[in-house]
Amino acid sequence: MPRYYFHIATDTEVFPDAAGMEVPDDAAAHHYAIQLISKTMLYDPEERDWRRWRVEVVNSEQAAVLTVLYPRYQWAPRTALEYRAAPVR
Fold this sequence. Notes:
The protein has helices at residues 26-43, 80-85; strands spanning 3-9, 14-15, 21-22, 54-59, 64-69. It is of the alpha+beta class. The protein has one domain. The protein starts with a strand and ends with a helix. The model is unreliable at 78-86 (pLDDT under 50).
């Protein structure tokens, strides 16, 4: 199985993935990058603007395979009461 590396990056910083992970193909690497994004967003709930964050997926030769962007804002589940209290638009 090929090894992929998932580097988390912003405009000013890169958090390199030194270990990498073996996954079957590019589609599986994309799926793992999305899971990584979800986990990092949960780990840092104080970050409010994720627009400049991304996961750069590279292969074992460090050649770019794909880039997965973070969503702009973190999704936060609402309670039923908050749905009722929200204004209708």
